[in-house]
Amino acid sequence: MASSHFCLLFLPLLLASIILLNHPVKCEDEDDNLLQGINTYRASLNLTALSKNDNAECLAGQMAAKFKDQPCTNTTGSNTVPGTEPVFSDYPNLLVTCHLNVSNTQDGTIMPACVPGLEPSLVLTNFTETQYSGSLNDTKYTGVGIGSKNNWIVVVLTTNTPTGSFVPATSSPDATSLASRIGSIYHFLFLLMGSIFLLLN
Ligand SMILES: *[C@@H]1O[C@H](CO)[C@@H](O)[C@H](O)[C@H]1NC(C)=O
Ligand SMILES: *[C@@H]1O[C@H](CO)[C@@H](O)[C@H](O)[C@H]1NC(C)=O
Ligand SMILES: *[C@@H]1O[C@H](CO)[C@@H](O)[C@H](O)[C@H]1NC(C)=O
Ligand SMILES: *[C@@H]1O[C@H](CO)[C@@H](O)[C@H](O)[C@H]1NC(C)=O
Ligand SMILES: *[C@@H]1O[C@H](CO)[C@@H](O)[C@H](O)[C@H]1NC(C)=O
Fold first, then answer.
1. Ligand 1 pocket residue status of 45, Cβ below 6 Å
2. In what helix (H) or strand (E) does residue 55 lie, and over which residues does it extend?
3. In whole angstroms, what is the distance from residue 120 CA to residue 124 CA?
4. Per-residue b/e over 100-123, b at no fewer than 16 CB within 10 Å?
5. Ligand positioned closest to the Cα atom of 44
6. pLDDT tens for each residue of 22-39
7. Are the C-beta atoms of residues 74 and 166 closer than 8 Å to each other?
């Protein structure tokens, strides 16, 4: 009896929590695909691969979330005329959220692209065959963070100088990913406790 109750109550909750935990991973696939594509592009130009920067990735994710409801047009994303990029009034807050500030990000570059369904080959060419290629082929960039939301994918490039490192002098760079991992564990424990509570009833 107890074990059939257990399956009845626990399995759906377990499945739900696995699905919820896996959700961000699907997004990361697209981001990882693009990172691979960009590094292949750089290798073809004899440039070093860009390494992942956690704070830049955080900022890219925040920017993508800001763009997410804007439709793709011929004046958005990689089609934007340089100098007319949208400015988000809460950009300083996004920096704070990602443990960044103006001093350690000013030499970085933020490149948003809008591609319906984030179709992988179009996503890559929106970076390698547009104005953005001029940044991707620049030797001064050494790091990268990628984030996506809906049809929007944002690449943030970082340098290895203090003014573009995206690394604060103090504070550990992977604080955010650790925080989200701890968040996931709590989420799972919450569901587990919930199902045990139901079971005991
Ligand atoms: C990359 O390096 C190889 C070998 O050094 C050379 O043959 C090739 O032309 C270079 N390609 C570019 C794009 O510079
Ligand atoms: C963008 O699209 C509009 C209509 O959809 C068109 O009138 C305009 O010429 C296009 N602009 C560019 C730069 O392609
Ligand atoms: C960029 O993505 C758009 C879709 O929003 C697509 O129409 C366009 O062809 C892409 N540009 C390049 C150079 O791949
Ligand atoms: C980088 O890309 C830009 C724009 O496509 C191009 O003008 C420039 O010659 C490229 N530089 C290198 C080193 O490939
Ligand atoms: C940015 O952070 C660094 C330390 O990480 C600090 O020294 C600097 O004053 C900050 N700059 C601004 C503009 O807040």
1. yes
2. helix 54-67
3. 6
4. beeebbebbbbbbbbbeebeeeeb
5. 1
6. 554 456 789 999 999 999
7. no
